[in-house]
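Sequence in, structure out.
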Amino acid sequence: MGSNWYAVYVRSRHESKVHALLQSKGIEVFLPVVEKLRQWKDRKKRVLFPLFHGYLFVKLPDDRMCFINVLNTHGVVKILGDSSGYQPVPEEQVASIYKMVHSQIAIDEHPYLKEGQKVKIIDGPLSGVQGILVSKNKEHHVVVSVDILQKGVAVKVDIHDIEPVI
């Protein structure tokens, strides 16, 4: 019986507690954390924070009792899925996040963006411009269309300078 990774949504600020509880139950669990410098009035300190606030990953076999065991853990809200059931997270995505977190390179959460999505430029001289995200030759562009003219213009952007329009 094969195992898959699943994303688990937990109560606010319970990521570490749930991680420890699941590990104590013998469940393979991955909580991606990043180190950030935090400053108080009297000192600065490096503190570990969850990369994805409110989420962690568990590797479970396709066994109903294993899912119930996770769901009965204090602090767990739900295992992510849709109407057809729990949705596994592809192994390569979890492996990539694991590698990034353990690389000692500075990483941070970034809004989920996909080609064709409406986005807004948030930094630089074009701040505030809204358009559609397009990828071309491994570069990212924001396309602004003028419907009445049936024409558009595109500008190359750094992916970190845009955010999704909600």
